[in-house]
């Protein structure tokens, strides 16, 4: 298993490089001019010097190589310098945003906690709700609970976040006035009252993001449980006199989690993708909103960096899913 993991990690490196190249080439085709927002009063010779400082006017392969060096070599050095007090990255050029003229990763690190608060909580809620629903729906197949759950999850999975977001705002924030309609990113948790305020403002964005995750995971959980309920080992366990709860929650659940792990692992990047829209709706100052603002401003370095981070999540979650396979099922061995 260790050798397999090492091989996958070695394969992941060129895979990520190829992905970054594709992202760079696609974005380079888009019309963008970082100097478009520069005031008209700035002389042309000054604009030209600014273009050179931003790395514009150079061949695409030079720009791409500079981005690779900055992202994979200089940015890790900045991370090391920050935590260990070294000076490896001092004076080196980092990935600079065309929009803010500041290092992109500094803005990402600043905004990431807001996204993790919302995305992380929504995924925990989705998993905690969907697995019990899927188990009970499979065990009570064709019951009223199962049929109602199937209908609700189908509707929840079909409706996109840009619709459910304004819908829950109108219902719970405007009409019922239970929760705030926007997310205050400047709010700090210092005591119990501030913690309650934080939880209240997280309810609506977490609800919107958790709806689709809950719908998909519960359906996969139900299907996997149904596939295993008729297996021979289940009849053997019941014949031995084991209680129904032990049969379902120990024997059936462990084998059923194998396909569900794939959905849980691969859905995490999709949750981040959904956060792009949700953060716009609820004014969450996270990396999703940062990506939207960068697209509006034609900020190529920021778009490329954030898009690559999402691609990195997908590759990483694939590897984690494969490792979890072997943990959940000892029969799976990677040679």
What report would you give on this structure?
The protein has a domain at 110-296: MetI-like fold, CATH 1.10.3720.10. 75% of the residues lie in helices and 0% in strands. The protein contains 11 helices and no strands. α6 (161-175) packs across α9 (244-282). The radius of gyration is 24 Å and the shape is globular. The relative contact order is 0.14.
CATH superfamily of the domain at 110-296: MetI-like
- The beta-strand count equals 0
Shape: globular
Roughly what is the average pLDDT, rounded to an integer?
A: 78
Rg over CA atoms, rounded to whole Å, is 24 Å
- Please estimate the helix content: over 70%
Highest CATH level, the class of the domain at 110-296: Mainly Alpha
* Assigned CATH architecture of the domain at 110-296: Orthogonal Bundle
């Amino acid at each position: 298993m260790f050798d397999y993991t090492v091989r996958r990690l070695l394969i992941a490196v060129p895979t990520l490089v190829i992905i970054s190249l594709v992202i760079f080439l696609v974005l380079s085709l888009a019309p963008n001019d970082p100097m478009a927002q520069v005031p008209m009063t700035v002389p042309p010779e000054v604009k030209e010097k600014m273009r050179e400082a931003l790395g514009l006017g150079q061949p695409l392969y030079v720009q791409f190589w500079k981005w690779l060096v900055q992202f994979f070599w200089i940015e890790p050095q900045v991370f090391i310098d920050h935590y260990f007090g070294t000076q490896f990255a001092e004076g080196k050029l980092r990935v600079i945003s065309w929009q803010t003229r500041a290092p992109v990763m500094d803005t990402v690190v600043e905004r990431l906690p807001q996204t993790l608060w919302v995305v992380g909580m929504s995924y925990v809620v989705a998993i905690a709700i969907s697995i019990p629903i899927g188990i009970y729906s499979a065990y009570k197949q064709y019951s009223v609970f199962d049929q109602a759950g199937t209908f609700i999850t189908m509707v929840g999975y079909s409706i996109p976040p840009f619709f459910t977001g304004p819908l829950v705002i109108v219902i719970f924030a405007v009409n019922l006035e239970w929760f705030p309609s926007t997310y205050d990113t400047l709010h700090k948790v210092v005591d119990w009252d501030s913690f309650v305020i934080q939880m209240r403002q997280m309810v609506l964005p977490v609800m919107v993001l958790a709806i689709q995750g809950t719908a998909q995971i519960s359906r996969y959980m139900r299907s996997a449980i149904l596939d295993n309920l008729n297996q021979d080992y289940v009849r053997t366990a019941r014949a031995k006199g084991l209680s129904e709860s032990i049969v379902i929650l120990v024997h059936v659940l462990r084998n059923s989690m194998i396909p569900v792990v794939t959905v849980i692992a691969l859905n995490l990047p999709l949750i981040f993708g959904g956060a792009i829209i949700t953060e716009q709706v609820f004014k969450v100052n996270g990396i999703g909103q940062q990506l939207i603002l960068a697209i509006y401003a034609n900020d190529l370095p920021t778009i490329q960096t954030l898009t690559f981070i999402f691609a990195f999540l997908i590759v990483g979650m694939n590897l984690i899913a494969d490792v979890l396979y072997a943990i959940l099922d000892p029969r799976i061995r990677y040679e």
